[in-house]
Write a structure and sequence with these properties.
Layout: H1 3-24, H2 29-45, H3 47-58, H4 62-88, E1 91-93, E2 102-110, E3 113-117, H5 125-136, E4 140-144, H6 150-163, E5 169-171, H7 176-182, E6 189-193, H8 196-209, E7 212-216, E8 222-225, H9 231-243, E9 255-259, H10 263-278, H11 297-312, E10 316-319, E11 323-324, E12 329-330, E13 333-336, E14 353-359, H12 362-370, E15 377-381, H13 385-394, E16 399-402, E17 423-424, H14 429-435, E18 437-445, H15 461-473
Parallel strand pairs: 3-4, 3-6, 4-5, 6-7, 8-9, 8-15, 9-14, 13-14, 15-16
Antiparallel strand pairs: 1-2, 2-18, 7-17, 10-13, 11-12
Length: 474
């Protein structure tokens, strides 16, 4: 996009969408359902092309695409179609004694023109998932897919152009400069998924227009494994949750904190499960059809630097460490004895490197977790009710998952989102609908009947008596 031409195009599309957003407010709900059904049908009919596009971007296996991108998205669409009527219906609220003469409810209205800036790690799901919520809530949308996954972004562009008018949904491809131009527009809501660093930029830009934001960020999601754990079950779930998508998942376990009494036994089980899942034919992980790649050279070098820094600082390699720069390949890599000052202890890994830390008491675990920014996810593997309750009560995170990992992301009836450095706002299902809706408070007073008239001026003895009664009884 040329600078001047790009700016003019953005302004023109935004102006048309703002006008269109006014008419969407009053259209029948069924029109929203029609759009969602068209989207659902397109995805179902083009799953093969979705698989091929994502594989071309970073080698993600076809079945993994279906499992982690297509299926959750279709579930999100079906949930919206089935519930859009109930979500949109006003909610009556009770009145206190002081408001007996009123009738009140909460009405849900579209926010207006919305911007969605999507990441590269789940390029199809995390671009179109928020779009589903925005459309269900009755908004117009400008989409910015990631430039790091050009094949998927081109496919999304094709999809949107086939299904929607530009004044309803429009796609803008390009690098960070396009995002910067978009962020100068006075959107009614901005939905961003990505790093904490960029999230701060998004929030700063939104402040210029006082736009509301949903930020889905990340963080160092800790995984605590205590002495009561079912070792093989936990090892298999963690192996899948960590190395699926080559570790490039915002809710992947970032590091393991394992009780000293089961430390060696758990590591042995984890190695076995990693091999079973991602190198079942024993051909080597680089030849496995079930193992994805790092997204690009930049992120490959970032991960290699994290690895080298950890090892040079005394970290011990206990599995993996194989790297092929030309393929952006890094094998599943397990590290122990990490120095507290190593970069990998403070930076989000977001790749197939897994530090494993030994602990002896839960107190030190809680202290360690609370010394870091609040993560997007916290995982506890174990069968101790006491330990589970302590960890959940004494730490803070966007999500908390027991004896599994990652799957809480796609639960249709749970809000998904972070806290502080890991994000703000919630998404998915009804919570996604609410993120793109204004909850309007509506109060209707009966004519001639209002308790507030009793305390209108002129003030005097009667006013004092009434206020005293109100404060005491109402």
């Amino acid at each position: 996009m040329r600078n001047k031409a790009a700016r003019e195009q953005l302004d023109q599309v935004f102006a048309r969408q703002r006008k269109r957003a006014l008419s969407l407010r009053v259209e029948p709900l069924q029109r929203r359902v029609v759009r969602l059904r068209l989207l659902k049908k397109w995805i179902e009919n083009n799953e093969k092309w979705i698989q091929q596009a994502i594989y071309a971007d970073f080698g993600k296996p076809a079945d993994s695409v279906s499992l982690s991108e297509v299926y959750p998205l279709l579930t999100e669409i079906k949930d919206a179609i089935n519930n859009i009527k109930s979500w949109s219906k006003g909610v009556k609220v009770d009145s206190s004694m002081a408001y007996l003469s009123t009738i009140s409810h909460i009405a849900y209205e579209p926010k207006g023109v919305c911007l969605i800036i999507a990441p590269w790690n789940f390029p199809f799901l995390l671009t179109l998932g928020p779009l589903v919520s925005a459309l269900a809530a009755g908004n117009t949308v400008m989409l910015k897919p990631s430039e790091m996954t050009p094949n998927t972004s081109n496919l999304i562009d094709k999809l949107i152009n086939e299904l929607f008018h530009e004044d309803e949904v429009a796609v803008f491809q390009g690098d960070a400069n396009v995002s910067k131009k978009l962020l100068t527009l006075p959107f009614d809501h901005i939905f961003f998924t990505g790093s904490t660093q960029v999230g701060k930029i998004i929030m700063s830009a939104a402040a210029d227009h006082l736009a509301s934001v949903t930020l889905e960020l990340g963080g160092k999601s800790p995984t605590v494994i205590d002495e009561t754990v079912s070792i093989n079950d936990a090892a298999k779930k963690i192996a899948w949750g960590k190395f699926m998508n080559n570790g490039q998942t915002c809710v992947a376990p970032d590091h393991l904190i394992v009780h000293e009494s089961i430390f060696e036994e758990f590591i042995t089980a984890l190695k076995i499960q990693i091999t079973k899942l991602f190198d079942s034919e024993n051909l080597g992980f680089s030849k496995s059809p079930d193992y994805a790649r790092v997204i690009n050279k930049q992120h490959f070098e970032r991960l290699r630097e994290l690895y080298n820094d950890a090892v040079s600082g005394g970290g011990k390699l206990i599995m993996g460490g194989e790297m092929i720069a030309s393929e952006c390949f890094i094998s599943p890599t397990l590290l122990t004895d990490i120095s507290p000052v190593s970069k990998i202890t403070s930076e989000e890994v977001f790749g197939p490197l897994l530090p494993i830390i030994k602990y002896s008491s839960l107190d030190e675990v809680i202290m360690q977790v609370n010394s870091q920014p609040k993560p997007l996810a916290f995982y506890y593997f174990g069968n101790s009710r006491k330990n589970r309750k302590r960890l959940m009560r004494e730490t803070s995170s966007g999500t908390f998952c027991v004896n599994d990992c990652v799957i809480q992301f796609s639960h249709p009836n749970l809000p998904f989102g972070g806290v502080n450095h890991s994000g703000m706002g919630k998404s998915h299902g009804k919570y996604g609908f609410l993120a793109f809706s204004n909850e309007k408070a509506v109060l209707r007073q009966r004519v001639g009947l209002t308790t507030t008239k009793l305390v209108y001026p002129p003030y005097g003895k009667r006013t004092h008596i009434i206020l005293k009664l109100l404060k005491k009884y109402f």
